[in-house]
Target: XAP5, circadian clock regulator-domain-containing protein
Amino acid sequence: MEYKGASHEASRAATLEKARTKMLADFQQQKDQIAKDKTVSIGQDKFVGQNDWVDDELKRQTIGLVALEDFQKIRENLDKKRQEEIDKGVTALYVEWQTKQKRKKKKEKVKLSFGMDDEGNGDDDAATSLPKKVKKDPTVDTSFLPDKEREAVEQQERDSLKAEWLASQEKIKTEKILITYSYWDGSGHRKQVECKKGDTVGQFLENCRQQWHQLRGVNVDNMMYIKEDLIVPH
Model:
């Protein structure tokens, strides 16, 4: 009976110790999460050089730690989609310009047709003696017919619109913004750094590094940029 009682007490003690260990682990996890929520605070709408939808999609597809090769592949696909969006935007501008050109040409043809009719009425005798000349109907759409001159003008306009759009994007990238960040060395240290919207993550980290004396001897390659739960390579 004494042996069974000792065994029962040992089992009960082991169960209590296991429950205590789990409780401490849960407490530590909650503590770490609270500390994490209070540290990194770079705005969702502030950092740099990429469209918001690219950042959101990249974050969605790379939750947690992701291999560098997988991250680069995902990023390459997103950049390809972004280029497709650029092409769509240029095409939309071109279609709008082409529609305006068609309307303009149509109005000019109608005016020309009226002018030719007025000239014909001035000489009735000549009109009766000569066969009627076949005229083109200005209301018929002939834009589908091959026309090298028109195609050259349209291509030139398309290139001009694309150059204009890309120039506007480059101008946006040179705009400066102020970013609030937190340097973590065991505790959080909040500061602000000025960057351009087109700066890379590496350039952002370099600007931050210069603000801390203890980081002057640290290479940027040995620093990490963490946005919420995502470690962003640079």
